[in-house]
Amino acid sequence: MSNEKVLRDGKVIIGTKQTTKVIEQGKAAEVYVAKDADPRITLKIVNLCKKMGVKVVYVDTMKQLGKACGIEVGAAMAAIVNE
Q1: What distance separates the 2 farthest-apart alpha carbons in the chain?
Q2: pLDDT grade, residue 78 (50/70/90)?
Q3: In the prediction, which pLDDT does 41 show?
Q4: What is the pLDDT of residues 27-40, one digit of tens each?
Q5: Three-class secondary structure of residue 38 per DSSP
Q6: Which CATH number covers residue 74?
Q7: How many domains does the chain have?
Q8: Do strands 55-59 and 28-34 pair parallel, antiparallel, or not at all (unpaired)?
Q9: Domain that holds residue 25
Q10: Alpha helix segments (H runs only) across 3-83
Q11: For the whole model, what pTM was predicted?
């Protein structure tokens, strides 16, 4: 996953609470989940995405996902929001 893809695709929401909120509101176009994030957290999000029909894209590490989102720390998940 490249920085350009995430940043080009629109507004990015980073973090579990915010990602959950945009999925529940039906605003998430795509959700990125780090494979090395805590499964107790990511499983709920992945199931919510399935229920809401949102595409889930897996990224190898939280560090990669954070970097792709333009932040210096790791991110467990991020969502691309439909404006």
Answers
A1: 31
A2: very high
A3: 92
A4: 999 999 999 999 99
A5: coil
A6: 3.30.1330.30
A7: 1
A8: parallel
A9: 3-81
A10: 3-8, 16-24, 39-52, 62-68
A11: 0.86
